[in-house]
Amino acid sequence: MAIQRVFLVALLAAKGGTFALRTHSTNPTQLPAVDAKYDGQCFYPQPALDFDLDSYLGRWYQVAGTVAPFTAGCKCIRADYSLNANGTVDVLNGCELGGQEVKIQGTATAIPSSAGYGEGGVLRVQFPGQSAPECPGPNYVVQYIGAGNGSEGCGADASGDGAFAIVQSSNFSTLFLLSRQQNPSNTSIEAWLQRAGRLGSNLTEVVLTDQTGCQFT
Question: 107 phi and psi, to 5 degrees?
């Protein structure tokens, strides 16, 4: 586990508790320090401004990211998000492993702004049979949404064909670089990974996802 060095910047009062806005870096010699919410137990990335859940729904392809237990050894990783009747989000993750399709379904619950983690783009995802996340706050934070090579700013339409999304977990431990296109250009992927690095992701643990020759997408 990477050593974290944390420098206190300011204290912010939020409904439901006191949060510290801190500068966080998992590797100070390589990564820039970034602002992160700290609730006394875990660090949380700052979410994207103007996040719109409705436009975020639908299919995303993971084009790069930190290897997670579900996706270890997988290619053709994807995620489908749809709205449930009770307002939660149905999460259907899929990938291809050894020529077989693998799926896992769970639920994402949006965390209200009153909790102090952000105005939108902060969710808590849970899959059946898995233990609850160790951190009390969100484990799925949409840090940035844009298009193309990353030159378009945050707030770009997440439903557009050229959209990308940078998603991080609590403690900056898991990065998902998502794209509406299954095979965007390498130039775009590299530009977005660099942006993810500037937002606090440790790129040394990130791998590209093979999205070629997919049988099920």
Answer: -135, 135
Contacts of 124 (CB under 8 A, 6+ apart): 108, 109, 111, 133, 137, 138, 139, 140
Question: Which residues have C-beta within 8 Å of that of residue 177, sequence separation ≥ 6?
Answer: 62, 63, 64, 65, 164, 165, 166, 167, 189, 192, 193, 196, 206
What Å distances lie between residue 132 and 23, 139, 191, CA to CA?
Answer: 27, 10, 34
Helix (H) or strand (E) holding 192: helix 186-198
Q: What is the pLDDT of residues 112-131, one digit of tens each?
A: 999 999 989 999 999 998 88
Residues 30, 11: Cα–Cα separation, whole Å: 26
The residues pairing with 92 across neighbouring beta strands, listed in sequence order, are 80, 105
CA distance 94 to 8: 40
Backbone angles phi, psi at 152, to 5 degrees: -80, 135
- The distance from CA 183 to its chain's CA centroid, rounded to whole angstroms, is 19
CB atoms within 10 A of CB 157: 16
> CATH number of the domain at 53-208, out of 1.10.10.60, 3.40.190.10, 2.40.128.20, 3.40.50.720?
2.40.128.20
Domain boundaries in the chain? 5-45, 53-208
Q: pLDDT class for 24, splitting at 50, 70, 90?
A: low
Instruction: State the Cα–Cα distance between residues 89 and 101, nearest whole angstrom.
Output: 22
pTM for this model (two decimals): 0.85
* Higher pLDDT among residues 206 and 5, named by residue: 206
